[in-house]
């Protein structure tokens, strides 16, 4: 769609713009209506308008179910927040001061208990970036599959952490040991997505 002669808002008067703007159809975009748009005279407002319109185009290309992927990532944020709080409480309880990542026997007699809590959170952080990338990318093509795997991974990570926090490292394994399978599933989905793009 091509629009000629948009209008620029300057004070209380409208003046024509003698430019040609080409953009794709955006039926719900707040910046375009009947091939005319208004922008303020701030020197960067036209850049903001262009970026927002481009974002609107991208959002329209996403499958509706991609919203579930986003919500799953938000859920993992709250899980990570929960683990952070538990580590913070353990630091106060066992008097393990920053910047020490782990406690020693000289720090507290309950050093093993603290280290299990800390390690349960640290292990989750080690695979967090991989999980996020696999969810964001794979979800573009297979949002429901990635959502299922992501929810499973989040739930399993919770049990991994709580099991580890018991003070017995083996407590993480009965349920938490399956988190690798969830990640493997996401890896397979992304491989399939990549192959499908190459073959098109």
CATH homolog superfamily of the largest domain: Membrane associated eicosanoid/glutathione metabolism-like domain
Give the tally of β-strands. Answer: 4
Distance between the termini: 27 Å
By secondary-structure content and strand pairing, the structural class works out as mainly alpha
Please, how many domains? Answer: 2
The H/E string reads EEEEHHHHHH
Q: Report the radius of gyration as a whole number of Å.
A: 25 Å
Shape: elongated
How would you state the average pLDDT, rounded?
Answer: 82
Briefly note the CATH topology name of the largest domain.
Four Helix Bundle (Hemerythrin (Met), subunit A)
Indicate the CATH class of the largest domain. Answer: Mainly Alpha
Q: Total helix count?
A: 6
Question: Which strands sit side by side, in order, in the main sheet?
Answer: 1-4
Low-confidence spans: 1-24, 29-41
Q: What amount of the residues lies in strands?
A: 5-15%
Tell me about the largest β-sheet: 2 strands, antiparallel
In the CATH classification, which architecture of the largest domain applies? Up-down Bundle
InterPro entries: MAPEG, MAPEG-like_dom_sf, Membr-assoc_MAPEG
Transmembrane segments: 66-83, 128-156, 176-198
GO molecular function: glutathione peroxidase activity; glutathione transferase activity; leukotriene-C4 synthase activity
Subcellular location: Mitochondrion outer membrane
């Amino acid at each position: 769609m091509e629009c000629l002669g948009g209008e620029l808002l300057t004070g209380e008067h409208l003046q024509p713009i003698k430019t040609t703007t080409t953009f794709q159809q955006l039926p719900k975009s707040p910046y375009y209506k009947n091939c005319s748009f208004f922008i303020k005279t701030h020197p960067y407002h036209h850049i903001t308008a262009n970026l927002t319109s481009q974002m609107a185009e991208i959002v329209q290309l996403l499958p509706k179910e991609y919203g579930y992927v986003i919500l799953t990532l938000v859920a993992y944020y709250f899980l990570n927040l929960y683990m952070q709080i538990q580590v913070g409480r353990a630091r106060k309880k066992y008097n393990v001061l920053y910047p020490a990542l782990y406690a020693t026997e000289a720090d507290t007699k309950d050093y093993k208990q603290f280290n299990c809590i800390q390690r349960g959170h640290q292990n989750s952080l080690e695979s967090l970036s991989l999980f996020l990338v696999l969810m964001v990318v794979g979800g573009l093509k297979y949002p429901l599959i990635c959502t299922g795997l992501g929810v499973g991974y989040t739930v399993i990570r919770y049990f991994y952490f709580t099991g580890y926090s018991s003070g017995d490292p083996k407590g993480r394994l009965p349920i938490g040991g399956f988190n690798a399978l969830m990640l493997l599933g996401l890896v397979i989905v992304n491989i399939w997505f990549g192959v499908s793009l190459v073959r098109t």
